[in-house]
Design a protein that fits this description.
single chain; binds adenosine monophosphate
């Protein structure tokens, strides 16, 4: 089963994705973590990606599409995966649909974590103190929220046409939200 966790930055995708992946015994593919590792190691991809990442902008599709395809093609993701942080653009969504479609598979559920903008900003500022991410500056936070609305939120309509989008209230305790996701997916 392939499940996409969608939501604005700070909506809790990483936390809920981890719980869900452990429960279902599926790998979690997290493009943000892959990019952070590449930036840390200063690989050619990391050097290029870092220029966008630090400003809170999306890393261009030309740089991330191959990485996404490689991840989906890994043997561990044959039976399914939790997608965290991608697809984030129309081109990425097309790639995911095409790659899974060629294998007779598809995205089964889109979980949309719904959190107000005020709460997102509050969480990201709090996280900045703890994690020290280079994209948690006030400017980068603002850019990330705008980018989500402009580039990623339109994917909701794309998937809603297929009737696979579930809106999950993203406020409440971590356990409450995980319970709601369990109820929606039925396992
Ligand atoms: P995240 O950890 O998912 O919030 O992602 C942090 C940053 O990594 C984003 O602001 C982008 O710069 C970059 N990033 C992560 N995933 C993607 C993606 N699928 N496409 C483009 N950029 C991404």
């Amino acid at each position: 089963m392939f499940i996409l966790i969608l939501g604005a930055p700070g909506s809790g995708k990483g936390t809920q994705g981890k719980i869900l992946a452990a429960r279902l015994g599926l790998p979690k593919i997290t493009t943000g973590d892959l990019l952070r590792a590449a930036i840390r190691e200063q690989t050619p991809l990391g050097v290029e990606a870092g220029k966008y990442y630090n400003q809170g902008k999306l890393v261009p599709d030309s740089l991330v599409l191959d990485m996404i395809k490689d991840q989906l093609d890994r043997p561990g993701a044959k039976e399914g995966a939790i997608l965290d942080g991608f697809p984030r653009t129309a081109a990425q969504a097309e790639l995911v649909d095409r790659t899974l479609g060629q294998r007779g598979q598809r995205l089964h559920h889109i979980l949309l974590l719904d959190v107000t903008d005020e709460e997102l900003v509050r969480r990201m500022r709090a996280r900045a103190h703890v994690e020290g991410r280079t994209d948690d500056s006030p400017e980068a936070i603002a850019t990330r929220l705008q980018t989500y609305q402009r580039d990623t939120a339109p994917l909701i309509a794309h998937y809603a046409q297929r009737g696979i989008v579930h809106r999950v209230p993203g406020t409440g305790t971590v356990d409450d939200i995980a319970g709601e996701i369990k109820r929606i997916i039925g396992r």
